[in-house]
Amino acid sequence: MSFTTVVLIGCFLSLALGIASLIFESGYRFDLRKRPRLKIEDGRRASDRLTA
Fold first, then answer.
1. Does the residue 40 lie in any domain?
2. pTM value?
C-alpha cells in the first residue's frame, strides 16, 4: 500500500469515528437531559401532593 492510500484510509476512519462519537454524545446528552427533568418534575409533583 502506498503512503497516500494509508493517509486517506486514516482520515476516513478518523472522520467516521468523529461523526459516530458526536452522534453518540448528542444522544447520550439528550438522554441525560431528559432523565433529570423527569425526576425533577416527579419530585415537584410529589412535593405538591405532600403540601396539598
1. yes
2. 0.44
